[in-house]
Design goal:
elongated; 3-stranded antiparallel beta sheet
């Protein structure tokens, strides 16, 4: 499980007391960027988490989202992977796996050297 390092304080608008404090802990490479209160009294927290890809700790950042309830309990977590900028397109295939040149209005799949795939269609 990826973790996001973020200290979230909830301070009521009336009064000066702190109602709760939660740390969504991870490594120093993870970062909380934005916190927004939702209509149900909870919070949505957006940030990024780094997945190391080499022995020096260099990696790619994924977008990481956390939804909490009003007490700071996590109710949902989402990781949105971001593709590597160093990847190269190896081949383009149709839905049956045959090599093709992409055509308008026909679905195709791009296969990259890092093992990722993207399903696409060019709409005319």
């Amino acid at each position: 499980m990826k973790k996001l390092l973020l200290l979230l304080l909830c301070v009521p608008l009336i009064g000066l007391g702190q109602t709760w404090e939660t740390t969504f802990g991870g490594t120093s490479d993870d970062l909380g960027v934005s916190v927004q209160q939702t209509t149900d009294g909870g919070y949505v927290i957006a940030g990024s988490t780094v997945i190391p890809t080499d022995s020096y700790g260099n990696g790619i950042s994924d977008i990481y989202l956390i939804k909490t309830d009003g007490n700071g309990n996590v109710t949902a977590e989402f990781t949105i992977p971001m593709p590597s900028t160093n990847r190269k397109l190896e081949k383009v295939v149709d839905i049956l796996g045959r090599d093709i040149n992409p055509e308008k209005n026909k679905p195709f799949i791009e296969i990259y050297n890092d093992g990722t795939v993207e399903k696409k269609i060019i709409i005319e």
